[in-house]
Every structure is written in C-alpha cells, then in structure tokens.
Amino acid sequence: MKASPSTTIIGFVNRNQQVNLGLDNPNGTDHGQSVYALRCERPLPDGTKCGHVYGANGSDIHLRLCPKCQNGKPGLPLTKSYTA
Ligand SMILES: [Zn+2]
Q: How many domains does the chain have?
C-alpha cells in the first residue's frame, strides 16, 4: 500500500490554501467517503481572507478549490457549524 499525505488531519493545508477543519460527516456523497470541512485561507485583493467554509469528500481535499473565489465545484453540505 502506497503512503499518502495526511490530507484528512485537522490543519492540513492544500496547494490551493484550503485548510482542513476536521471531519464533519462520516457519511459522504461518494461511496465510502467522509465529508470534511474546509476553510479557504486565500487572500482577497482587498487584503482580507476569503474564509469560506464548505464540505468536501476526503479524497478531494488535496486538490479542492474554493467554490467562492477559485471557481471550485460547489461545496457539500455540512452538518456542523464553523466559525471563519
Ligand atoms: Zn475562497
């Protein structure tokens, strides 16, 4: 079995500056997939951070783009609430 980066741990940041906030829902939309909450840390032109929070399948975390500011696909619904 090939080792994979720990994209599902809290605090993981992918190359698109999306931060993993942790497991949200163990019953994801893809077979066998869990939903994780991600937050966009991308700086906006006005100097603030985007801060958008959305759900993503565990297998997508490493390549996820923000649905709000990076034209990523729409986020999955989250079951918990998160502060930006
Ligand atoms: Zn964003």
A: 1
C-alpha distances in Å from residue 50, one per residue of 4, 40, 43, 46, 80: 28, 6, 6, 10, 20
pTM: 0.88
Q: What was the pLDDT predicted at 29? A: 72
Residues in the chain predicted with pLDDT less than 50, given as ranges, are none
Ligand 1 centroid from CA 25, angstroms? 21
Residue range(s) defining the domain that contains residue 70: 1-84
* Gap from CA of 17 to ligand 1 centroid (Å): 9
- Rounded to the nearest whole angstrom, what is the distance from the C-alpha of residue 1 to the centroid of ligand 1? 34
